[in-house]
Amino acid sequence: MKKTYVCFLILFISFFSCKKEENVVEPLRDVAEQVSREEMELEEFLSSHYYNYEEFQDSNSTVEIKIDSLLQSNSGKKPLIDQVVKQFVKVKTSSGDLIKHPIYTLIAKEGSGQSPSRADSTYVSYKGILLNKSQFDRSFEPIWFDLTTVVRGFREGLGVFKSGEFTVDQNNIATFSNYGQGIVFMPSGLGYYNNNSGAIPEYSPLIFIINLYLVKKTDHDGDGILSGLEYDNDGDGLPDDTDEDGLVDYLDAD
Predict the structure, then answer these.
(1) What is the DSSP letter of 131?
(2) What gap in Å lies between CA 189 and CA 102, rounded to an integer?
(3) Assuming Cys at both sites, which of 19, 77, 214, 217 could form a disulfide with 123, CB separation 3.0 to 4.6 Å?
(4) Are 210 and 192 in contact, with CB atoms under 8 Å apart?
(5) What is the DSSP string of 87-112?
(6) pTM of the model
(7) Separation of alpha carbons 116 and 95, rounded Å
(8) Dihedrals phi, psi of 252, to nearest 5 degrees
């Protein structure tokens, strides 16, 4: 009996020790260090991959963007790093610091219409993938997005594209042409950072392949001023509240 009791006690202690280890929460990573690390990871991906840019040379064709690895057999392809535009946006951290985050955009087709502001509504289809090229989200049909409700990298990146044109047939089916197509690459600080979201692990850089069909200029509060002019004029990524009444400008009719 004594031997059995000792074995049970060891198992009991071992079980709760394992449970304790499983529940350990990782301290929040330093934002500046993390964004620097992810900038290198993104540029390594951009240097080792390309997209099917040759298929986009015919302006009248409808083509889906595809990303593939640069291997010896296709080493002559132009890497993504030579085709993206790199910009920086400032992210306000919980401590109040403003940390510059890179965002990379690639335009396969610019589009023929208008570009959205950070607060407009957009009719888009998209595919989201991680750096290992696993897919975490996709819209098979176009969907309306209020850009104030999406992650910042998507909101910022979409502004380089333009909407397209459409015709409607006798069955009320729309056909789009000359719409913006491209890719947005962002560090996790412009996405979900230390949060898990569905199939997206914490601290994951994100890639969005985007088709932009329509843009609807919005005035959320109906004050006669477009929301894009009221949303984020100080560039910290957060909606402005210039009169400090607790209601952000684009939702504040007064």
Answers:
(1) T
(2) 10
(3) 214
(4) no
(5) EEEEEE-TTS-EEEEEEEEEEEE--S
(6) 0.87
(7) 30
(8) -110, 105
How far is it, in rounded angstroms, from Cα 91 to Cα 97? 8
pLDDT single digits (tens) 212-226? 999 999 999 999 999
State phi, psi for 10 to the nearest 5 degrees: -65, -45
Domain 27-218: which CATH number of 3.10.50.40, 2.10.109.10, 3.40.1740.10, 3.40.50.1860: 3.10.50.40
DSSP 8-state symbol, 200: B
CB of 103 within 8 A of CB of 88?
yes
Q: How would you label 171-184 residue by residue, b for 16+ Cβ within 10 Å and e otherwise?
A: eeeeebebbbbbbb
Q: Is 226 exposed, middle or buried (0-12, 13-18, 19+ CB in 10 A)?
A: middle
For the record, the structure tokens of 115 come out as 């570009």
Residue 102 contacts residue 42 (beta carbons within 8 Å): yes
Q: Give the tens place of pLDDT for each residue, 135-150.
A: 999 998 999 999 999 9
Domain ranges of the chain: 27-218
For 146, how many CA atoms within 13 A lie in the half-sphere containing its CB? 8
Asked if 162 and 177 touch (Cβ cutoff 8 Å), the reply is: no
User: Is residue 161 a contact partner of residue 181, using CB atoms and an 8 Å limit?
Assistant: yes
Could you report the per-residue pLDDT of 30-53, keeping only the tens digit for each? 999 999 999 999 999 999 999 999
pLDDT for res 193: 94
The rounded percent of the chain whose pLDDT value lies above 90 is: 71
